[in-house]
Write a structure and sequence with these properties.
Length: 639
């Protein structure tokens, strides 16, 4: 739910010089289509982050398809024995001789050895160099487009013929016009585009000609926040030319919730973010938008409205009257009540005077929810009743995916615990064990999509990936060994308590109420359900908002990425006559190798450094980020 604008400023200097290409050099890449915007020469002193992509080991590539079939074909004896990331790096790494030859060329051209780094995945040599240095190295001239988000490139460049065989391509260099070109990946550490997400999580755009199952539309929940078609169209035309203008979700309006909005009606950044991530992944599959509540309720302070209750009512009629934990139907002090005869904030259209909508929509196979509150915002009985509902949805084969939150171990701001500043604050409904929580990761500046991501921690925004341990729900069986492994090998340095018991029974007052466990002096519940389960990128995401390109982020982005990939997997299963995948946590905890373990970063909050991302499950990034190909292999192998 974050929103900020990237400002990359390059001076508008002009300097003309040309240079003869010495013998022994060959053209390595040439731009096929001219790029009229790249017309301004770059200042010779501007620093460029240079990346030389080295060719993979030839023998490995020749065998790669056979290896893949060995681990993914159901009749193979090695089925499911996926490779570790270390083995992949090792087998595919370029030969030492190749790395040495390219490095020697750089050092003999004046790029000192200490300036050159070899990426963790061994596929890249990286160094920063001035335009002047690079132009002399590659015998070329660099241009930029004078835009705020500057594009930088040359029309062709040269390398010595003796090392050409070792080099895939060099960035920044010839910016391709082809949307699938690897050049699109050069700036993923600055702007996450759909191409970056595909490279990160190992999948391609869906086959536009494959038959689609009409029963598999991705569900997205929104409340009090609206998409605008004009911004979606700008996003599509700038990032995903394969998605036509006008593509939009099917509206399942709940109790007066309406979308889209025009710019004049204050569209929200959350909806734009959700669709900017989901459409590029699932298209041409449809998206179903569950837009909840009339404006009177939708705009009410999140901590005062019950959240999700009217949504559950609408997709499960029995929830309207279901009794559990001392509550039946909607809670008069917490939930929106319909018909709503109170006039709204702006016009009569803001109110929904119809009856409460009960069981009017069928839940989709996968539902993405980038909204949430904190456990201490709501009474425990209320959360338990909602959690039962999630269990019932899971039993029907619905996968509910939720953003873990953007506040680290705290409740908003690095310093804020909202509980006398001394106890970590788990997010809700996240702590319900029957939901899949998605934490946030980022590509560190200077890294490529092929380097391991780290847990997101963005101090300007007070933003880090929410995680921790519930004070309401105990550790579920499917998670027990992962959490035990974490405590055994990476015990966090904080005092803790057991049987955390958030048992508030009246309407909340966060500053006044203290958890039962406070007297025990711990700050987290050692045997609570761990959050999150998995993670995905949630930082520096390209979106369009009010007609302008900008950057957005939050686990709000991570959630639709993960949910969209699950929806793609469901589609593949439907094609072979299998059913949806339902609650995925037991499968993911049983086969964590289908995820990329995140082992760096932390989630500060509550005046502490938070927890650390480590090997295995951790309360920052869970089991890690998706590898679509591996996840698909796993779920296709299951009955
Ligand atoms: C997607 O939605 C559109 C518009 O509602 C509909 O015409 C189309 O049939 C849907 N596609 C599938 C595969 O259900
Ligand atoms: C979609 O769901 C309906 C109702 O469950 C079912 O009758 C139909 O066969 C399904 N269609 C496909 C293509 O699976
Ligand atoms: C799609 O919509 C955008 C934004 O309105 C516009 O700039 C673009 O030209 C449109 N593309 C097509 C193919 O109509
Ligand atoms: C966005 O797309 C529009 C229409 O395709 C194009 O005119 C414009 O230059 C693009 N803007 C950026 C920043 O890519
Ligand atoms: C948005 O503007 C269009 C064109 O001006 C109009 O037809 C439409 O009714 C407006 N939508 C809303 C939700 O106000
Ligand atoms: C809502 O507005 C209408 C028309 O302005 C008015 O007649 C009615 O009394 C109002 N209802 C409430 C509950 O304020
Ligand atoms: C929570 O509080 C209620 C009402 O005070 C009480 O009946 C119940 O036993 C408590 N539950 C736990 C687990 O302490
Ligand atoms: C919550 O408690 C604080 C501290 O006791 C008090 O100042 C505040 O007025 C209370 N707020 C509400 C809404 O009761
Ligand atoms: C972890 O990230 C920090 C910066 O956030 C970086 O300095 C460090 O090298 C990284 N460590 C590993 C093992 O990747």
């Amino acid at each position: 739910m974050l929103h900020y604008v990237l400002i990359t400023c390059l001076g508008l200097f002009w300097l003309a010089w040309s240079r003869a290409v010495p013998p022994g050099h060959v053209v390595h890449e040439t731009r096929l289509l001219s790029h009229p915007q790249l017309s301004r020469r770059m200042h010779p002193d501007t620093l460029l982050p240079m990346r030389i992509g080295l060719k993979h080991n030839k023998d490995a590539l020749a065998n790669a398809e056979r290896w893949l079939m060995e681990v993914s074909h159901p009749h193979s004896p090695k089925y499911g024995q996926f490779w570790t990331q270390e083995t992949i790096i090792d087998v595919f790494r370029p030969s030492d001789a190749a790395v040495k030859a390219v490095a020697r060329w750089l050092t003999s051209s004046g790029i000192a050895k200490h300036r050159i780094t070899h990426s963790d995945n061994k596929g890249w040599l990286a160094f920063d160099a001035t335009v002047q240095e690079v132009e002399s190295l590659l015998h070329t001239e660099y241009f930029h487009d004078g835009q705020r988000r500057a594009s930088v490139g040359c029309n062709q460049y040269h390398v010595p013929s003796r090392i050409q065989q070792h080099i895939d391509y060099i960035t920044p260099g010839v910016k391709g016009q082809d949307k699938n070109s690897n050049d699109e990946l050069a700036n993923c550490d600055q702007v996450i585009t759909p191409a970056c997400v595909r490279a990160l999580y190992n999948f391609d755009t869906a086959d536009p000609t494959a038959p689609l199952n009409p029963n598999n539309s991705l569900g997205i929940f929104e409340e009090g926040d609206f998409y605008t078609q004009a911004d979606l169209d700008l996003f599509f035309s700038n990032h995903t030319s394969y998605i036509p203008n006008g593509t939009h979700p099917t509206l399942n309006s709940i109790d007066g919730g309406l979308a889209p909005n025009n710019w004049t009606d204050f569209p929200g950044s959350e909806s734009e973010l959700d669709f900017a991530l989901a459409y590029p992944i699932v298209y041409p599959q449809n998206i179903t938008l569950f837009q909840t509540d009339d404006m009177y309720y939708a705009q009410r302070d999140a901590s005062k409205s019950g959240w999700f209750n009217t949504f559950f009512d609408a997709i499960d009629g029995s929830y309207c009257t279901y009794s559990a934990w001392g509550e039946t139907g909607n809670d008069p002090s917490l939930d929106p009540i319909y018909p709503d005869l109170r006039n709204g904030t702006a016009s009569d259209q803001d109110i929904y005077a119809g009856p409460l909508m009960c069981g009017v929509y069928k839940p989709t196979n996968v539902i993405s929810i980038s909204y949430g509150v904190f456990e201490m915002d709501l009474p425990a009985y209320y959360q338990k009743r909602q959690c039962d509902e999630l269990l019932k949805l899971a039993l029907q084969g619905v996968s509910v995916v939720q953003a873990s939150g953007d506040t680290g171990v705290g409740a908003g701001g690095y310093e804020d615990c909202l509980r006398d500043n001394d106890v970590f604050t788990p997010t809700a409904l996240n702590s319900c064990p029957w939901i899949t929580n998605v934490g946030g990761t980022t590509i560190e500046t200077g890294n490529t999509v092929y380097d391991p991501e780290v847990a997101v921690n963005n101090p300007w925004q007070d933003y880090s990936s929410s995680g921790g341990f519930s004070n309401i729900f105990p550790i579920p069986d499917y998670q027990a060994s992962a959490v035990a492994h974490y405590f055994k090998h990476h015990d966090p340095p904080y005092p803790y308590y057991h049987d955390g018991n958030w048992n508030q029974t009246t309407t909340h007052n966060r500053t006044k109420l203290l958890p039962v466990e406070k007297k025990q002096k711990g700050i987290y519940n050692r045997n609570g359900r761990g959050i999150p389960d998995v993670a995905a990128n949630g930082d520096k995401i390209a979106v369009w908002w009010y007609g302008e390109p900008s950057l957005s982020g939050g686990t709000s982005a991570s959630c639709p990425i993960f949910a969209s990939l699950l929806n793609r997997i469901v589609e593949e299963r439907l094609k072979v006559g299998k059913g949806p995948i339902g609650f995925v946590n037991p499968a993911l905890y049983a086969y964590p190798e289908v995820l990329n373990d995140i082992t760096n970063g932390s989630n500060p909050g509550c005046g502490t450094d938070g927890f650390r991302a480590v090997e295995g499950w951790d309360p920052v990034t869970g089991l890690g980020t998706p590898d679509y190909a591996r996840m698909l292999g796993l779920f296709l192998s299951l009955p």
